[in-house]
Amino acid sequence: MLVLSKLFIAGLSFSAALGFLLYGGRLFLMLKRFPIESKGRQQKLSEVGRVATICSCCFLARCVMMCFAAFNKDADLDVLDHPILNFIYYLLVEIVPSALVLYILRRIPSKLKLAHYHPLSSG
Question: Domain named THH1/TOM1/TOM3: which ranges (predicted)?
Answer without folding.
Answer: 2-120
